[in-house]
């Protein structure tokens, strides 16, 4: 940080500290009638100064204080905005406090019917959980953001968050859930404009892949359903891949599976996710092939019973002059 920047930050911190001192003094006054509102404004201004100084923890705490005083003054809209400001700065330094502030803002916004703001903060919570590696909580909050946006008649924004649910479900190996999400999105695209209908093909393909990993019989049935539902998919290279892979899995034919994948990959390079899912789909076929090979090897190791010579003592079993057992 340059000398000028350091001086600016120090000046901002000094202003913030003086604002807080003024707010605390105000609360001790017996005569001020609007002291909650005035204190809230002072804490809000302190938050702005701390933010300018890059002191995000102090900025967040000041915004929370401002929100609490706005609540006491029955200024819920201002309180929600300050909780929102707190969540925005705290997500960089204190995940749990950021989530707490965001949830308090969401509660107020939902009570006021301000669903767009509530949805935005719900995605902030989801992003905080995702950054921390908590995929389950991230999925749940992206799902909640989707539902809020649907209730607010914002389907395009809603499906942006639903797509995040699907991506995280794949990452968390929740393949049935991922398939359901991508199928829902594909169905939505199919009901919209021609441009959006074209997006259904890729979403149905992703849904089919996830369903196939979850359960190959169920996945094959869903794949056929998607082909019948979306003519763009049925006539595409993805549609041909679905038919070939379904056939290979049903026949447990590893060669057919490999050919189908290679033919597709020659024109459309497979993504890492696509490859990973296809490898999982192929696992039962490989296992069956290995088991068959082992069975074949075991049969080859069995002795030729017709060529076995039975060596027994004369006094145990009767033998003829050639040394063979004579049971006549």
UniProtKB/TrEMBL annotation:
Keywords: Protein transport, Transport. GO terms for biological process: intracellular protein transport; SNARE complex disassembly. Signal peptide: none annotated. It comes from the Eukaryota. This is Uncharacterized protein. It holds the Pfam family SNAP. Belongs to the SNAP family. GO terms for molecular function: soluble NSF attachment protein activity; syntaxin binding. GO terms for cellular component: SNARE complex; vacuolar membrane.
């Amino acid at each position: 940080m340059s000398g000028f920047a350091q001086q600016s930050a120090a000046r901002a911190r000094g202003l913030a500290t003086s604002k807080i001192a003024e707010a605390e003094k105000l609360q001790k006054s017996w005569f001020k009638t609007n002291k909650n509102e005035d204190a809230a404004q002072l804490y809000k201004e302190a938050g702005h100064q701390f933010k300018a100084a890059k002191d995000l923890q102090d900025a967040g705490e000041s915004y929370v204080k401002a929100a609490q005083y706005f609540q006491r003054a029955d200024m819920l809209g201002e309180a929600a905005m300050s909780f929102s400001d707190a969540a925005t700065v705290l997500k960089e330094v204190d995940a749990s406090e950021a989530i707490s502030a965001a949830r308090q803002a969401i509660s107020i916004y939902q009570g006021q019917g301000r669903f767009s703001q509530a949805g935005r903060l719900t995605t902030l919570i989801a992003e905080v959980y995702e950054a921390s590696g908590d995929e389950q909580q991230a999925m749940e909050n992206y799902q909640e953001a989707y539902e809020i946006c649907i209730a607010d008649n914002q389907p395009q924004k809603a499906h942006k968050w639903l797509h995040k649910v699907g991506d995280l479900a794949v990452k968390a190996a929740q393949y049935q859930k991922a398939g359901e999400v991508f199928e829902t999105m594909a169905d939505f695209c199919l009901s919209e404009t021609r441009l959006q209908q074209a997006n259904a093909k890729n979403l149905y393909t992703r849904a089919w892949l996830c369903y196939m990993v979850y359960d190959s019989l169920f996945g094959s049935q869903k794949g056929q359903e998607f082909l019948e539902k979306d003519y763009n998919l049925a006539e595409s290279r993805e549609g041909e891949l679905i038919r070939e892979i379904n056939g290979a899995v049903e026949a447990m034919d590893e060669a057919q599976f490999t050919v189908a994948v290679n033919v597709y990959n020659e024109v459309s390079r497979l993504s890492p996710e696509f490859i990973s899912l296809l490898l999982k789909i192929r696992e039962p076929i490989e296992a069956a092939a290995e088991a068959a090979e082992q069975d074949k090897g075991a049969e080859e190791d069995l002795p030729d019973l017709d060529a076995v010579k039975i060596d027994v003592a004369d006094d145990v079993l009767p033998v003829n002059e050639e040394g063979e057992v004579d049971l006549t």
